[in-house]
Structures are given as structure tokens and as C-alpha cells.
Amino acid sequence: MSCGAPVKSILRILGLNKSTYYRKKKIQGPNKQIIFKDRSYIPGFSYNNKNQKVNDILIQKYISEVRSDEFGKYYGYKKITSVLNRKYSLIINKKKVYRLMNTMGILHERTERVRKYKRICKNHKVSNSNQLWEMDTKYVFIAGTREVAYLTSIIDVFDRSIIAYDLSLSANASAAERVTITALYNRKIKGHVNGLTLRTDNGSQFIAHKFEKLCLKENIMHERIPVHSPNYNAHIESYHRYLQDECLTGKMFLTFDEAEDTIERYVNGYNTKRVHSSIDYRTPNEFYNLKNCNFKNNLVISV
Fold first, then answer.
1. Exposure string (b/e) for 54-77, b if CB count within 10 Å is 16 or more?
2. Domain range list for the chain
């Protein structure tokens, strides 16, 4: 003989539909506790591409492995999902990864970004590598010698690769020239540039006659952004922010060589290990070398 209130009355008090109750009851079976949390309900497993069940505890272990990596510790749930799909062959969506990471207490807190520049730019389509590069310089403090080093880097806007960089004690035209020539050789287009635009700010090293002469010689269209408008150079600015947060913050370099070695390791990892949402959650090297990619290769960038 059964006891207690009728199911219909309980559901009416809880404000739940009968269909919700019976659907969950059917899924979980007669001997399992019913959880009335609908979308926040987390199943106990997911499947891999071999149709095998993978327990949530093991999935959380995978997430911890990804997060223990030098670059993975900065990943949000969307990038974690991409790595789980590709590296661990899991069939899992970003909503479940979000819930698991929330349970683990490792979700990054979102911070509001203040838009300082509201100028609307004209849009150009960049559909391949070596069409638009951005170059900028960043300060790196050497505590041991009390010197300031200057890091000059070039990024390809399409594939997000750091093509070349140079750390020196002088932010002059020679450094800018050196980085540009290295980038041309690295991309194997030295002497036969076709339609490449190189965008910089108005730093003294970029407006120098020596650097302008190089651009003319190599058939590079040098484009300088308006004063006080770093948003026009957003991709290299963004990279330098990642470099600061993920590599330089908390470091105290005693020598120039120590700083150079640290930056070299970061750049190599950035190009070969760090995935980017804007290039189909792939690394820059992987995306650059990918020949038959299903990702729509028409990036719209502001100039």
C-alpha cells in the first residue's frame, strides 16, 4: 500500500510539469533519486568517439591536466571544451564543461572591459596569411641591471602567428628593420612580397627614414595608425597583453639573457600550444599549416 501525497499535488506545489517529472523518472529508472534542477542537472558521464562512457570524475581529471599546462591555465570553458574534443576525443559540449568547471571552482571571473575608443573603422577582408601584419614595441624591465629592454614583435592578423620578434636595449629603426627582415625570411617571401600591409603606430623607430626605405625596397605597404588609437592595432596590442599577464607578471629578470630565454619559450608556446577562438580553437602554427580547413577563412578586421 502506498503512502504520501499524490504526485499530481506535489508537482502542483513545486510548480513542475508532469512531463518533466515522468521524463526524468524514465531516464533515471525507478530506483534512482529524481533531481528537479532541469538544466543544472549534470549527468554522471559523457561519451567518447568510440561510443564508450567516460565518467565525470575522469573528465574533471582531464580538465585539471589541461589547466596544469603553461597556457591551459588561462583557458576558459570554451577552449577547454575544444581541447577535450580534440585531444581526449570526448563528445561533450561547452555547457557541460562549464558546469564541471563551476563544480571544480575554477571558472574565471568575467571582468567588464571599458571601451576607450569608439571610433568606427572601415572594414577590410583579410582572407589569407601575409596580407596584413601588425608590429609594436613593448617595454621589458631587467631588474638585475636596472635597464629597460624593448621587445618588438610582428603578428599576422589572419593566422595570429608571432612571425618574428626582437629584444634589444634600443627601440630604434634598426630593431624594427631587423624584425621585419626576419619575418620576411620566416614566411619565405623575402624579395617577392605580394600585397602585404604592415601596420604600426607612430613611434620614432617606425617613422624613421631607414625603416621607410626598407618598406619601399621590399614592396611593403607601411600603414601608420592615427595618434592615440591603439584599437587600430588591436591584434598586436592583445598579444602584448597576453604576454604581460601570462609571461612577464611576477617575473624578476636578473639578466638580459634570462629575459630573452623566457620570452623565447613563451613565443614558441604561443605559436604551437596556445589555442585561439578566432581561428577555430587551433594554435597559430596549426591554422597556418592547415590546407583543407572547414573554418570560413574570411576574417573581417578594422583598419
1. bebeebeebbeebbeeebbeebeb
2. 1-41, 42-107, 123-302
- Cβ neighbours of 229 (radius 10 Å): 14
User: If you ran DSSP here, which 8-state letter would residue 296 be given?
Assistant: -
Would you state the cell numbers that stand for residue 155, as one nine-digit string?
603578428
Candidates 3.30.420.10, 3.30.70.20, 3.40.50.300, 3.30.1050.10; CATH matching 123-302: 3.30.420.10
Strand arrangement, sheet containing 90-91: 53-55, 45-48, 90-91
Percent of the chain at pLDDT exceeding 90: 45
Cβ partners under 8 Å of residue 117, min gap 6: 229, 230, 231
Whole-number Cα distances in Å, 44 to 83, 115, 172, 222: 20, 42, 59, 56
Ranges of the chain with pLDDT below 50: 1, 31-42, 112-122, 292
Alpha carbon dihedral 127, 79, 70, 64, in 10-degree steps, equals -160
Q: Per-residue pLDDT tens for 126-180?
A: 889 999 999 999 999 999 999 999 999 999 999 999 999 999 999 899 999 999 9
pLDDT digits (tens, 9 = 90+) for 64-98: 888 887 777 778 888 888 888 888 888 888 888 88
- Measured in degrees and rounded to the nearest 5, phi and psi for residue 122 equal -75, 140
